[in-house]
Amino acid sequence: MNHHRAKPGEFGFTDEPIVSSGRTAAIVLALVLAGGTTAAWFAWWRESPGTPPSSGGQGPPEIQQGRQPSVKLPSAERLYRGKTLVHWGKALQDADPQAREGAATVLREAGTAATPTLVGALKEDNPDVRGTAARLLGRLGPEAKAAAPALTPLLEDTALSVRVEAAAALWRVARWPRALVTLGQLLQRRGGAFGGRWWAQRDVVRQAKAALADFGAEGMAGLTRLLDDDDADTRDAAVEALASHGPTAVPELANTLWTGARPVARCAAARCLGRVAGASLGEKAKAAYQALHAALRDPAPEVGRLRPRPLPA
User: Residues 286, 222, 251, CA angle at the centre, nearest 5°?
Assistant: First the structure.
């Protein structure tokens, strides 16, 4: 049998090799790079809806620099220390205190991305979880203002420590005056509000005082405005909260005593000054007593009848 051998050029064949091995490697590398660039263009286009890829432009910065653009994941899917925020939210309920502390640290580091997880934790049965979630939301400040409606019911929480954390958080995220009132009411120690448990009273009072002190001058100004509130209980709570600041509250109180538009505000300021003066000694009490003696000349009888003790020597 005669085998026909294709002549050079017949059927498109040639005696020369199609490509050299070096050219083959170069072609393969070019194809890989072309495929990576195409994928990068597609990912960028998916991240920028309504902006179709164009062959004439320079493209996004990532491609210009020869890098693949990063695809951002939703906060719920993003990993923090290898776990999702949902996982860390559940870890707040762990029986191990160290695990709970670690979860709180991660959620704090996550910033505003953790807000939905923390809002969900406010509804948990465990008061420690609710308190921790409220405290972490408060640390986010105004950026977590959307959480205010979820924090509000906790002002009536059965756990008084949770009330303190919720009130502090509401002031920090929304500057809500009712938060200050709640803290003042917890300081009043009225009618068995602490269920007769002296250690609970001590801890809650210390917590509330620390929160009020942390609010600084802005918190004192907010409390001073509440001295003019129409509700007597609100005024009483403001007096209690302002008195917890001690001598540092005297300038605000003295200013209200001299310039307050309504007698109820001046009377509340005078009562608060009396509390501060009675709890202070020496020079720290002197400014409070001086302001109180000025109240004797007040035309409103309910203010003038507040008789302070003699000025300290």
Answer: 20
Rounded-to-integer distance, Cα 98 and Cα 181, Å? 34
Asked if residue 309 lies in contact with residue 289, where contact means CB atoms within 8 angstroms, the answer is yes
pLDDT digits (tens, 9 = 90+) for 114-151: 999 999 999 999 999 999 999 999 999 999 999 999 99
State whether residue 199 is helix, strand or coil. helix
The reported pLDDT for the residue numbered 279 is 72
Please name every residue paired with 80 in a beta bridge, in sequence order, or none if there are none. 83
Phi, psi of 79, deg, nearest 5: -100, 140
Within the chain, how many helices (H) and strands (E) appear?
15, 0
- Asked if 171 contacts 180 with a C-beta cutoff of 8 angstroms, the reply is yes
Amino acid at 151: L
Say how far apart CA 270 and CA 256 lie, in whole Å.
Answer: 9
Task: Give Cβ neighbours of residue 253 (< 8 Å, ≥ 6 apart).
Answer: 224, 242, 269, 272, 273, 276, 288, 291
Q: What is the pLDDT of residue 132?
A: 92
Q: For the whole prediction, is pTM greater than 0.90?
A: no
Query: How many residues are present in the chain?
Result: 313
Q: What secondary structure letter does DSSP report for 12?
A: G
| pLDDT given for residue 256 in this prediction | 87
Phi-psi map region of 257: left, alpha, beta (phi>0 left; psi -120 to 50 alpha) = alpha
Of the candidates 106, 46, 111, the one whose C-alpha atom is nearest the C-alpha of residue 81 is 106
Higher-pLDDT residue of 74 and 206 is: 206
